[in-house]
Amino acid sequence: MSTYNPAFSDNSSNYTTQNLLIILGVAFGSIVVLIAIAILCERLYWRRWYQNTAVIPEVPHSHNVSYGLSPSAIANLTTFGYKRYDNEGTGGGGWLQCAVCLSMVQEGEEVRQLPICKHMFHQECIDMWFYSHWTCPLCRTKVEGPEEVKVRDNQNTTTPPAPPV
């Protein structure tokens, strides 16, 4: 009794053709994967190279440029402990949400009220904001300390406007 085994058959032309196709498929797939890896590595290399050698335009005297408020101007802004008034109290009631961190202000937390627009924020949040900005985060009104407002008002009242020409 004999069993048919294609690996040991006399006619093995189909068997070697199948093996050849499998070997060619694996080789072709391996080449495609290696090319994809090479392209990916090259792109990552060039991206890092461009990031490390990017030309940053030099701003004249950029070490003296300040984009936010000075620490003294920030320290001069009004700071107090937040007190929520209920509807029967003197205030209109409601809750205060800090527009910088987007969390609710709890009673007793330190808040700063901006002098012109009267918006209030957590002290830490708005101080961080003012290191890089000089406007209110809500209404974009220019923020000035109380002394700057007084100086500006005094300058306007003591100096009359120039006559029209």
TrEMBL record:
SUPFAM superfamilies: RING/U-box
Transmembrane segments: 20-41
Annotated source species: Rhynchospora breviuscula
This protein's UniProt keywords: Membrane, Metal-binding, Transferase, Transmembrane, Transmembrane helix, Ubl conjugation pathway, Zinc, Zinc-finger
Pfam families xref list: zf-RING_2
Listed pathway(s): Protein modification; protein ubiquitination
Domain RING-type: 98-140
Matches recorded under CDD domains: RING-H2_EL5-like (cd16461)
Record-given protein name: RING-type E3 ubiquitin transferase
Membrane topology per record: Single-pass membrane protein
GO cellular component: membrane
